[in-house]
Amino acid sequence: MIGKKREREDPEVGGAGMADIAFLLLIFFLLVTTIDVDTGIGLQLPPAPEEDQEPPPIKKRNMMKILVNAQGQVLMGTEETQPTPVTQVKRNLKEFITNRGQDPNLSDNPDKAIVSIQTQRDTPYNVYINMLDEVMGAYAELRNQAAQSNYGVPYDRLEEGSERHEKVKDMYPKKISIAEPNQ
Questions:
Q1: What is the pLDDT of residue 40?
Q2: Distance CA 181, CA 117 (A)
Q3: 155: which DSSP letter?
């Protein structure tokens, strides 16, 4: 017996604690992981008017009408709407907003410029979103140019709520009206 070698069993890792460890890791990753939630289109709505309050008078030249029809066409204009490629919306809006009374068919000044957006029920969603991106992009570019020329920094670098941020925001206020879709 002294010279005999004992047969050893292969060492094994106990499997009883594995389920506990896997469960704890699962809970850990659920708690630590953040999930991005799409919040939709962020627009700030104006306060609701009082019931007996009449809407303020608006000159036709100060309102840019944008209609996105069921065929996916963007119709744009102050008096009469004309077919406009989505890629042209930003340029037309910037021209409309920054007119400062020079062209009698465009807005008097950026403070009076209103963008009215209307769709039809069967409007393709992607065309509507692309058009809305162009509208928001026009305001973003105008504000960025104003911040660059006045303060030497892009608009998004200005501290939210600071005096400079508010001045640039007041130079080009977003006055966007989104009407209910018709048929």
A1: 66
A2: 9
A3: G
- The three state secondary structure string of 16-80 is CCHHHHHHHHHHHHHHHCCCCCCCCCCCCCCCCCCCCCCCCCCCHHHEEEEEECCCCCEEEECCC
Q: Which amino acid is at 89?
A: V
* Every domain of the chain and the residues it spans: 60-178
Strand, helix or coil for residue 83: strand
Fold classified for 60-178: Nucleotidyltransferase; domain 5 (3.30.420)
pLDDT digits (tens, 9 = 90+) for 153-170: 999 889 888 999 999 999
61-118 pLDDT tens trace:
888 999 999 999 999 988 888 999 999 999 999 999 998 878 888 888 888 898 999 9
pTM of the model: 0.70
The answer to whether 131 touches 80, Cβ cutoff 8 Å, is: no
Q: Cα–chain-centroid distance for residue 32?
A: 28
Confidence category of residue 42, pLDDT binned at 50, 70, 90: low
Start-to-end CA span in the chain (Å): 98
Please give the Cα distance from 150 to 170 (Å, whole number). Answer: 13
What's the Cα-to-Cα distance from 3 to each of 6, 8, 10, rounded to whole Å? 10, 15, 21
